[in-house]
């Protein structure tokens, strides 16, 4: 009798554990949809559109609208006045400033093209000549610098040229060299520099 009772309890227990315990299909799909919705809302709450007040390396230039993490904006960009929250008023102001900046950039580009044409016309007639003392082997005692070339170009053409604009190869001996002059990121011209050795 005890053996029969134990067997029936074991069979009943095994039958009980085999029964699937789950939610109805409609409830599972609605739970999945709400989970996706929650993730979307969480992502929306963690990012923010901002307008850059200054140029930021690897982020953008002044006046650009970028999307950043909310914490990055709150803890770094906003306290140090690198960016503002993109409100409709600031968006309109940024758009107006962008148009003004684009017009200024276009005017500067046209001016630099005119300056490059002037340098080409004036320096096409002859090379810039530099006289340097040299040893018997032809090596120069002094170097020719970008500042000297910039000054010679400015004197001859009337165009203000800074030494930072001049890309000059290393000059160690007498000869003819080409110096590139970058007036604008999109405008570049060149001049010929002839170095004469004086023994």
TrEMBL record:
Coiled coil: none annotated. Keywords: Ribonucleoprotein, Ribosomal protein, RNA-binding, rRNA-binding, Signal. InterPro entries: Ribosomal_bL9, Ribosomal_bL9/RNase_H1_N, Ribosomal_bL9_bac/chp, Ribosomal_bL9_C, Ribosomal_bL9_C_sf, Ribosomal_bL9_N, Ribosomal_bL9_N_sf. Residues 49-93 form the Ribosomal protein L9 domain. Residues 1-15 form the signal peptide. It comes from the Eukaryota. GO terms for biological process: translation. Gene3D superfamilies: Ribosomal protein L9, C-terminal domain, Ribosomal protein L9, N-terminal domain. SUPFAM superfamilies: L9 N-domain-like (SSF55658), Ribosomal protein L9 C-domain (SSF55653). GO terms for cellular component: ribonucleoprotein complex; ribosome. Residues 126-197 form the Large ribosomal subunit protein bL9 C-terminal domain. One of its GO terms (molecular function) is structural constituent of ribosome. The keyword Hydrolase does not apply. Belongs to the bacterial ribosomal protein bL9 family. This is 50S ribosomal protein L9, chloroplastic. It comes from Diacronema lutheri (Unicellular marine alga).
